[in-house]
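Subject: complex prediction, re-run

Hi both,

The earlier run crashed halfway through, so I resubmitted it with identical inputs.
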Amino acid sequence: DTGVSQNPRHKITKRGQNVTFRCDPISEHNRLYWYRQTLGQGPEFLTYFQNEAQLEKSRLLSDRFSAERPKGSFSTLEIQRTEQGDSAMYLCASSSPLDLYREAFFGQGTRLTVV
Amino acid sequence: AQKVTQAQTEISVVEKEDVTLDCVYETRDTTYYLFWYKQPPSGELVFLIRRNSFDEQNEISGRYSWNFQKSTSSFNFTITASQVVDSAVYFCALSEPQEDSSYKLIFGSGTRLLVRP
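This time it finished cleanly. Structure:
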C-alpha cells in the first residue's frame, strides 16, 4: 500500500492521559500536514512539516500538543493531559511538489475518544 | 479572511437523480485553488478535483461535473445519475498557494449526501 498510513485507527483514553498518533506519508512526499476534524465539521489545519522542519502551527495547537517528524519520514502527534474537547478525528496528509496536481493525499485518520 | 461555506448540511436523493452540492468561498487573494474531497464512512478524504482561480472552465469527469463562477464566488459540484456508492460527506476546500508550494486547506463544514436505492 503506497497511501498515507495512520496508526492507530481508533484510540479511547481517559481524561488526563497522554496519547501519541503516528503518520507514515507517501514515501516520496516531503510535506506532511496534520488536521483535526470534529463531528459534523470539516477538517481544520493544525501543523505542517517540510522534511523534518515544522514550518507552521495553527493557534488550535495548544501547548499540550506537540508534533515531530524526526527524520523527515513518519510523524507523530502527541497530546498531553487529554481533555474531552480533544475528542476528534486526527487526519494526516502528505504532498509533493513534484506531483503534477500537487494536491494533498489524506490518510484514514485516527479517531480519538476521551472519556 | 478565507472562508468556505457549504450551506447544505444533508441532502437525500433517490438513486439516478441528479444532485448539486453548493460551495461558496471568500478570499482576498486573486490567486487561489479550490478543491472537492469525498469522505466515505471509512474516513479518508478522497481527492476529486482541484481548480485554480484563473481557470473558470467547467469540468466534467464521468458523472461528476463542476461549475466554477468567480463572479459569485461559487464552485458547485453536480453528480448526474447518482448511485448508492456516492453516499458520503463531500467537502469543498480553499487554499492559497504558498511560496514553498505547501497546502493549507480551509474546508467547509461538508454536505452529507445520502443516495437511497
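Chain B touches chain A at residues 4, 6, 35, 37, 42-47, 50, 91, 93, 100-110 (CB under 8 Å).

- K.
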